[in-house]
Write a structure and sequence with these properties.
The chain contains six helices and no strands. The chain has one domain. Helices cover 60% and strands 0% of the residues. Helix 1 crosses helix 5.
Length: 120
């Protein structure tokens, strides 16, 4: 899943930018610096999301609920470190092939980017 948030007046620009990045992920290999930055950001956010007992309980409970078990918490950083540019591209190709796009916001922001047809 990918997502982006923006001001209503930037909806079209944001969607174009998101599409560009998704297409780039499926077509190109990330360079070493991009991959390193992405991993660092993800692992940093992961650590920040486990600062309280409630946050830790939530994530461990989630892992149990989806069948990964609480041990996945310790395995997660190593799994992220093991990601290569090639595996990232192959994963993007697998999951971003036929995207579904949901746009939420005021009608004036959404209408220009929707291609909606109606039959009345």
């Amino acid at each position: 899943m990918t997502y982006i948030g923006t001001a209503p007046q930037n909806t079209e620009i944001a969607l174009d930018g998101l599409k560009f990045e998704v297409d780039r992920l499926t077509d190109c290999l990330l360079d070493d610096e991009e991959l390193k930055t992405a991993k660092s950001k993800l692992l940093g956010q992961y650590a920040l999301g486990k600062q309280t007992n409630a946050q830790i309980a939530q994530i461990l409970g989630w892992y149990e609920a989806i069948g990964l078990g609480t041990g996945f918490d310790a395995a997660f950083p190593a799994a992220i470190e093991a990601v290569t540019a090639e595996s990232a591209r192959e994963t993007a190709r697998r999951y971003f092939r036929d995207p579904y796009v949901a746009v939420v916001g005021p009608e004036e922001a959404i209408a220009p980017v929707l291609q909606v047809t109606t039959s009345c």
